[in-house]
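pinging the channel bc i need a second pair of eyes. not urgent but kinda urgent?? the chain im working w is below, pasted from the shared doc
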Amino acid sequence: MVFKQLEKVFNNCRAENHIFGKQNLFGLQKNAYFCTKYLYVIKQQNYMNTKKYTLVINPGATSTKAAIYDGESEVFTENLSHPIEEIQKFKEVADQFDYRKGAILDMLKRHNVGTDEIAIVMGRGGLTRPCESGTYEVNDLMKQECHDGIQGKHACNLGALIADSIAREIGLEHAYISDPGIVDERPEYAKISGHPVFDLDPSREGVIWHCLNQKMTAKLYARELGKKYEDLNLIIAHMGGGVSVGIHNHGRVVEVNRALCGLGAFSPTRCGSINASKLIEVACSGKYTEAELKKMVTAEGGFVAYLGTNDAYEVEKKALAGDEKCKLLVDAFCYQVSMEISRLAAVVCGKVDAILLTGGIAYSKPWMQMITERIDWIAPVKVYKGENEMLALAMCGKEILDGAKAKIYK
């Protein structure tokens, strides 16, 4: 077999008039040396060609989505469930690192994916300091800020940490994240709160939203039109466990609500914008600690607070079956999302090309119809059911493999 490969290489070299393929050969020994060296290069190239997969890692509160992609094509995806009784064993989110990493490595073994087949590892970005949109190398500064959770303790902080660890273990120089949820592209005048005490500190605070899925949905829509994302003005509403609504002005999101921390429409688990005077009254009542209040706003608001569930599908079923309280909350949810969308049209003076509705709640046809009826006077409305975060990370990984340069987090 080796002889045949050498013979093939040698004949190719003769045909290409390589120096050792000319008639005046330097001798058999030298020919063997050159052919062996050439064969070594071929073997190295074949070895690199086996590294073709993208490993995508997306940690959530009680599960981790992990997938293998070949370019933009999904090979498989698993939603690795983490029972709440297991999660509660860990004091901090960062303490779940080994537990979740082990689950991902076990998944790769179940699917017989060798680590030598993985060309790049992409992780979901964490709650670090505000940054520009783009794909970033995971570096020590990013890892430290994800570990510390400087903008919040959330499972997404584990994305960069686990991706980096696996990448280094399998011999890759870097892991990468793309379009983390703390991307902040707003102009300075959009950051004024109304009182300097309540302005966010730009060195460490910014909006927290569903950047990855919103940007991906925008790019998919632009691709369908045969246009570039940067050519369009789009309002995009992501509706899942949280709700974020952003205006994409020629490739930059110049306004979006701080979805995690109590702004915008309420969601299955979050309060959304709430009455400031009432918040002050409750905060000063002595009934709640700071931690309890934060939990009320970010994890125990919305449907959880009013109905005792975070399952939007269950709320929809009960509303359709005649449950008046569920129907009231459905009406309120669709009303608030519609208002968020409508107010953003003013940011671009009404020049909106389309409104895109996405996220898990976008599977609800009745809810999307209710929202559409309130907003389709602004621009055409299109629904993208579910989220495209895994595909987004895979596509960004492919861009890096194809030669795109990643940004440096600093």
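so The first helix runs from residue 2 to 15. and The radius of gyration is 26 Å. — does that match what u expected or am i reading it wrong
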